[in-house]
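About this split. The held-out portion is used to measure sequence recovery: a designer receives only the structure tokens and must propose an amino acid at every position. Recovery is the fraction of positions where the proposal matches the reference. Here is one held-out target exactly as it appears in the evaluation file.
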């Protein structure tokens, strides 16, 4: 067999779900998102591998974080399957199949309390300044 005919291992350029959630978290952090938390939900649900929760202090900031995450994801070749909440920018949900990003106004995040719902899921340490546990 010629050297060029040997099978090469299949190497995917597709980022892993963990890499995707880290890109989204960094983009949200760059726009001063607060209380950024990632939950590994792959053992608890089949809808995604990770949920990312981000708090914003105004609808303008929700929009800025959404746009930054969207641009960062496009930069790694990821487009959302669906985006909900752009009509009022109180809670924007971005579905990237294996990663779902939630950007909330403070009041909406407190009201819906999704961390309580998914609290059994392990948290992914993101290495962001001010991350819970870094204090």
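Reference sequence for scoring:
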């Amino acid at each position: 067999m010629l050297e060029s005919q040997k099978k090469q291992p299949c190497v995917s350029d597709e980022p892993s779900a963990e890499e995707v959630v880290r890109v989204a978290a960094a983009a949200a952090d760059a726009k001063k998102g607060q209380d950024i938390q990632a939950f590994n939900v792959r053992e608890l649900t089949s809808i995604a591998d990770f949920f990312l929760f981000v708090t914003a202090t105004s609808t303008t900031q929700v929009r800025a974080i959404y746009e930054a995450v969207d641009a960062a994801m496009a930069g790694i070749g990821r487009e959302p399957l669906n985006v909900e909440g752009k009509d009022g920018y109180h809670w924007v949900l971005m579905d990237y199949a294996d990663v779902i990003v939630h950007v909330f106004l403070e009041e909406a995040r407190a009201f819906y309390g999704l961390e309580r719902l998914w609290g059994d899921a392990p948290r992914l340490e993101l290495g962001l300044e001010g991350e819970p546990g870094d204090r």
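Annotator remark: The chain has four helices and six strands.
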